[in-house]
Specification:
Elements: H1 4-10, E1 25-29, H2 31-39, E2 46-54, E3 60-68, E4 78-83, E5 88-92, H3 93-96, E6 102-108, E7 115-119, H4 122-130
Parallel strand pairs: 1-4, 1-6, 2-5
Antiparallel strand pairs: 2-3, 4-5, 6-7
Amino acid sequence: MVPNNWINEIRGRGIMRLMSASTDFRLRADAKAREWLDLHPAAGLRVVAYDVHRCCGGGKICQVKVRQLSRKDNPDQFVTGALEDGTEVLIDRRAAARLPSRFRLTVRGMGPLKHLDLDLGAEQWATLLYD
């Protein structure tokens, strides 16, 4: 559910949406991700963020990250997905246009660097990052 304080920000904007808000994304957390989610409850929604940067040589660097919703996030930039338990997850529209409608979350990293991540096949990663 979109926080109430965003409703006023959304109204009156003439922003064209990239995808329909009714897009149905289903996320499944594997056992490691479910354990991580249980140990790290979020104060708000989690988002699948998609960032694109240009390096000094002009190359494009894309980064995908699962993180908590930030005050800087614009609700118009996200579509809604849901975990199997009904927990809502916001997905950046740029990533949503490249992601399959069903995908898994897993945990990657070691020690304090452990984090939630998408569990995609090689071609799905290539589509997400390089198309």
